[in-house]
Write a structure and sequence with these properties.
The chain is an all-alpha fold and 46 residues long. Helices cover 89% and strands 0% of the residues. It has 1 helix and no strands.
């Protein structure tokens, strides 16, 4: 029984790691876009 409990726990942690990885990738993309916008605004010359 202990082995099956450990397997269930491992599979749950793998799923949550995937969700976390996707979330972090999304935030990284947003930060990249925001950083690019700030650089463009700072370097803007009329």
């Amino acid at each position: 029984m202990k082995k099956s409990n450990a397997t269930v726990r491992d599979s749950k942690s793998k799923v949550s790691c995937r969700k976390l990885g996707g979330y972090l990738r999304e935030q990284k993309g947003r930060l990249y876009i925001i950083r690019r916008c700030v650089v463009m605004l700072l370097c803007w010359h009329d």
